[in-house]
């Protein structure tokens, strides 16, 4: 199929892009990597009147390290971060499982975050590490934390005239350990369930842990594990049981809610066991 007719603009500055978004409101869409947007347009699932291509915008392809962490501009490709490393272990562990080499070569980190697929890896990584989006509009700038960003499948807290100019992922401390595990039907498919774990481990003991899941709810889900700490298989089983008990999995054409609950329990336990082993191997499937 072919997309519905649309106008195309290729601004060279952020201010020019913001002006276009302000003038066209909800009828404009931003094009960065296009790996999700363009197939939707071809199927006429979305029909923007204006496509704002930000690939020529100065400064959006910049990667840098700030006090807030690793800052990735809106047009930084997933493949570039995968090859160079980010300083955020969970992001580096999850990226090999995002799409395929072909889509990663064009797809952007920020684009995946803004597309807001609840089964995608990168929004869940952002939630697990406590990162956020740097957003600009004609009215000014703001930061949207991951916990406040997602409103539902394909829906974020960004207004139609706002542009996500960068994402920030906190850098790992020396005692940070992380793991990403997921289960999908085929390589390259979105996972039925994905799990990200970030923990502070000292002398083999976890004294702080964050767990987030993809593909379970209609937004990335943070498992309520505040205050849980310990060592060994006992902690891994305890956190896994909390996750399985507290989740309210979706039931859809890809699999059942009951199957997702089993996957949550298994993947959370295995991810924490991996963290406790301080294993540097990236494992991507159950």
From TrEMBL:
SMART domains: CO_deh_flav_C (SM01092)
MF terms (GO), sorted A to Z: FAD binding; oxidoreductase activity
Residue ranges crossing the lipid bilayer per the database entry: none
PROSITE patterns according to UniProt: FAD_PCMH
Domain of life of the native organism: Bacteria
Keyword Mitochondrion among UniProt keywords: no
Domain FAD-binding PCMH-type: 1-174
Keywords: FAD, Flavoprotein, Oxidoreductase
PANTHER family: XANTHINE DEHYDROGENASE SUBUNIT C-RELATED
Protein name: Carbon monoxide dehydrogenase
Organism ancestry: Bacteria, Bacillati, Actinomycetota, Actinomycetes, Pseudonocardiales
Gene: cutM_2
